[in-house]
Specification:
75 residues; alpha+beta
């Protein structure tokens, strides 16, 4: 029940971003589509980098897809 646009960072993403990961804005891309999301929570999802908020995911693919490969970028 996080605010709209706030997603959860998986262990590898948290490690890559370091201790200041919470509150960071990242760009998530699937193919030619990219969206921004704020990392406001964590997930214990060892084989996944990020758990996107539903509206953020829906901007990239139908929710029924469930999983997708993405790239994640941050400044």
């Amino acid at each position: 029940a996080s605010p709209i646009g706030v997603s959860a960072a998986g262990p590898a993403l948290r490690t890559a971003l370091g201790p200041g990961w919470r509150g960071r804005q990242v760009s998530v891309c699937a193919g030619q589509r990219c969206v921004s999301t704020i990392l406001g929570d964590w997930c214990q999802c060892p084989r996944r980098a990020i758990d996107l908020d539903a509206p953020v995911f829906a901007a990239l693919a139908p929710l029924s897809q469930g999983l997708m490969e993405v790239t994640i970028e941050w400044p």
